[in-house]
Write a structure and sequence with these properties.
The complex is a heterodimer of chains A (211) and B (474). Chain A is of the alpha/beta class and 211 residues long. Chain A has helices spanning 2-16, 40-53, 85-105, 114-128, 171-175, 177-193, and strands at residues 24-31, 59-65, 75-80, 132-138, 160-165, 197-201. In chain A, strands 3-2-1-4-5-6 form a six-stranded mixed sheet, sandwiched between helices. The N and C termini of chain A lie far apart (48 Å). With 474 residues, chain B is mainly alpha-helical. In chain B, 86% of the residues lie in helices and 1% in strands. Chain B contains twelve helices and two strands; from the N terminus they run αααααββααααααα. In chain B, α2 runs antiparallel to α10 (397-445) and α6 runs antiparallel to α8. The longest helix of chain B is centred in the N-terminal third of the chain and has 110 residues, at 11-120. Chain B is elongated. In chain B, 17% of the residues are buried. The chains are: A alpha/beta (211), B mainly alpha (474). The interface between A and B is medium-sized, with 22 and 22 residues.
Chain lengths: 211, 474
């Protein structure tokens, strides 16, 4: 009888224990430097796709990569979804509108601070504390820092999935493909040495596996 | 092995030595070994047999118990049927007896009216006035004196007779018309009497039919009280039929409950949130399930309060006033829950539209949404289902009661079957143990065939394991 009572109490306590987080956090970096700004239409599609994949209590933020990206000011839109379905739909529509406005009005930035943006993404997602942390980098991954900006910083990307999207080839890459490959390899090394998972998706038709 | 063959320089000799040694040892140990083998076999046989007998006893007890349960259930069912039949008879008798005085009065009045009319309709021939006296006057006239005036007198008489005849005919016609009128007035009374008597006849026939039904049920009830095998057989097969039919209906009800669940689980997330979990399950799902279970419970209580089912004797034993109050309370709760479900079903449709519009927007379709003039039909159908299903689930109480009652019998029958098979297996194992012992003894004797042959040659009898077994069993 005691054993039965103990088992019932254990089951009851187990059911009352705080549930583990199952939500996702997505931070998307948009490269607005130079000619890559023209690719923002594609980025909007990806954002809309991501919105359709996200659900209650998930967090989503979209930030631009410009000269100095380690700043909250570069966050274009951010949201943590409610747990009521009607509110989620409303939030998604508002978010999509914000992104649409940004894509229409975005200006090119002279420099490209991807590392700063990544640092900002890590900080944001760590603060939100979701179960799955994903950083989407919509860029050609060609970093171009302004003089004086120090970005030789060690990351802590443990538990992060870093996905580079639409990594376009530059004119110089066409001349010497090794530049492109080296660039990808460097970023992969940087992410994986920091404990993160690295992935590249260039075919935007195959986004089914994303998120 | 090599060591065994190396006890002499010649391995064959070593092997022979070993064989002789082993056979000799086995021969000396043979009686003890046989005793051991037979003792083991017999022990196992007795053990399995005892176990089998215990199982058979348990099976018999269970069968008796099942029989009692079946009879009790059958008796209860028959009592309910007989009680209901008596209620119906009571109702018929009460209704007819209550109307009997009015009926009697009506019949009396009708009969009195008919009697009066009949009295009035008696045929009295009209009396011819005056002419008899005239005939007497004519008869009194002397034939000699007044022969001349006779013709006139006779003419007057003729006239008087014709006049009297006419008057008599008029009176006769008048009297006939009156009689016919009276007879016509009697017709409705005859019909009324005929209808009344026909109704009484029907009621009496109904009572006779019901009394025949009660007689039949009472006969079956008596058979059950006596515990006759025929009753058991009928009840047992009935239980199985009820079990499968009620299980089928329950499956249908489960399907209905599942649809009901899918109708309200999604919009329930609007009320309790879509992500919170309790024990690994979504709170919204649990809330939807709880609502459905509460509806089913209310349905059960409603059926109990209406005395349609008898799962809870406490409710059945409540005073009528409290019971009626309970009917209204449970019905009100059920109605409110059904209304809530209808609202949730509507909310579900709204959410679906909202989600469709959002996904269309995210796919790049702008603010355009798919609109259909007939979408209200889907919405209305969902709301209707949300409202009706809780009431439909109320009737689950009836198959549930049957299922619960028949389940007891079915489990009993299954348990009896399992026990019977167990008993058979134990008996088989017992026999197998016994004959395994015999076989083991025979196998033991197999390498000893030379010493045994020698011994039998000396003693003149063949000592086999079989004969030992016969001795042991005798």
């Amino acid at each position: 009888m005691k054993k039965i009572t103990l088992s019932v109490i254990c089951i009851f306590l187990a059911s009352c224990s705080p549930p583990q987080a199952t939500n996702s956090g997505v931070y998307m970096l948009l490269d607005t430097s130079g000619t890559y700004r023209e690719e923002l239409q594609k980025a909007e599609q990806i954002i809309r796709y991501s919105l359709s994949r996200l659900d209650a209590t998930d967090s989503f933020a979209v930030a631009r990569i410009d000269t100095g990206s380690f700043s909250e000011k570069d966050i274009v839109a951010k949201i943590t979804f409610d747990d009521r379905p009607s509110a989620i739909n409303r939030q998604k529509r508002v978010f999509a509108e914000q992104i649409s406005n940004f894509v229409n009005d975005a200006t090119s930035s002279p420099y490209t601070d991807i590392t700063g943006g990544l640092l900002q993404a890590v900080e944001y997602l760590n603060e939100k504390g979701p179960a799955v942390k994903t950083v989407l980098i919509f860029s050609d991954l060609k970093e171009d820092l302004q003089d004086g900006y120090i970005r030789d910083i060690k990351f802590d990307l443990d538990g992060f999935d870093v996905i580079a999207l639409n990594v376009t080839k530059l004119r110089s890459d066409n001349v010497d493909p090794r530049e492109y490959l080296t660039r990808l390899e460097e970023w992969q090394t940087k992410v994986e040495s920091s404990g993160g998972n690295w992935q590249v998706i260039n075919d935007l038709e195959g986004l089914e596996g994303l998120l | 092995m090599t060591f065994l063959l190396n006890i002499t320089p010649w391995p064959v000799l070593s092997a022979l030595l070993w064989i002789v040694l082993i056979v000799t040892t086995l021969t000396f140990a043979r009686p003890t070994a046989h005793k051991l083998i037979f003792a083991t076999g017999n022990s196992l046989h007795k053990m399995f047999r005892t176990a089998s007998l215990s199982v058979v006893k348990a099976e018999k007890d269970l069968a008796n118990r099942n029989r009692e349960v079946l009879l009790a259930a059958g008796r209860e069912a028959k009592e309910r049927i007989v009680e209901r039949e008596f209620d119906r008879i009571n109702e018929t008798v009460r209704k007819d007896l209550a109307n009997f005085s009015a009926l009697h009065r009506s019949l009396n009045e009708s009969i009195n009216r008919i009697e009066n009319d009949h009295q009035q309709a008696v045929d009295v021939p009209p009396e011819p006035p005056g002419w008899v006296k005239a005939v007497e006057a004519v008869a009194a006239i002397d034939s000699k004196d007044s022969r001349v005036g006779i013709g006139d007198v006779l003419a007057d008489i003729h006239k008087s007779l014709i006049k009297a005849h006419k008057e008599a005919m008029v009176a006769y016609h008048e009297a006939s018309r009156t009689r016919h009128t009276l007879l016509r007035k009697m017709r409705p009374d005859w019909r009324l009497i005929q209808q009344t008597l026909s109704q009484v006849g029907k009621n009496v026939d109904s009572l006779l039919g019901r009394s025949a039904t009660i007689d039949r049920h009472m006969q079956e009830y008596e058979d059950m009280v006596k515990g006759e095998d025929r009753s058991i057989s009928i009840l047992s097969s009935s239980s199985l039929v009820y079990f499968f039919v009620s299980a089928l209906v329950m499956c249908v009800a489960v399907g209905g409950a599942t649809i009901n669940f899918s109708l309200i689980a999604r919009p329930m997330a609007e009320m309790v949130g879509g992500t919170s979990l309790v024990g690994g399950f979504r709170t919204a799902d649990i809330a939807a399930l709880v609502i459905i279970l509460v509806e089913i419970s209310m349905g059960l209580f409603l059926m109990e309060s209406l005395r349609i089912t008898r799962l809870f004797p406490v409710i059945g034993a409540l005073p009528d006033k409290t019971r009626v109050r309970m009917v209204w309370i449970t019905f009100t709760i059920l109605f409110l829950l059904a209304s809530v479900e209808a609202g949730l079903a509507f909310m579900r449709e709204v959410l679906l539209h909202d989600e469709l519009a959002t996904s269309l927007l995210l796919r790049g379709g702008g603010e355009e949404t798919v609109t259909n003039d007939y979408m209200w039909i889907t919405t209305a159908a969902q709301m209707g289902m949300g409202f009706i299903l809780p009431f439909a689930l109320t009737f689950v109480a009836i198959p549930l009661e049957t299922f619960v009652h028949s389940l007891r019998t079915v489990i009993g029958l299954l348990a009896i079957g399992v026990l019977r098979i167990t008993s058979l297996l134990l008996r088989l194992l017992g026999s197998a143990s016994r004959y395994t012992g015999v076989l083991a003894a025979q196998l033991y004797d197999l390498p000893l065939f030379i010493p045994l042959w020698w011994a039998s040659r000396d003693s003149g009898e063949v000592v086999t394991a079989g004969s030992k077994l016969k001795k042991a069993t005798s």
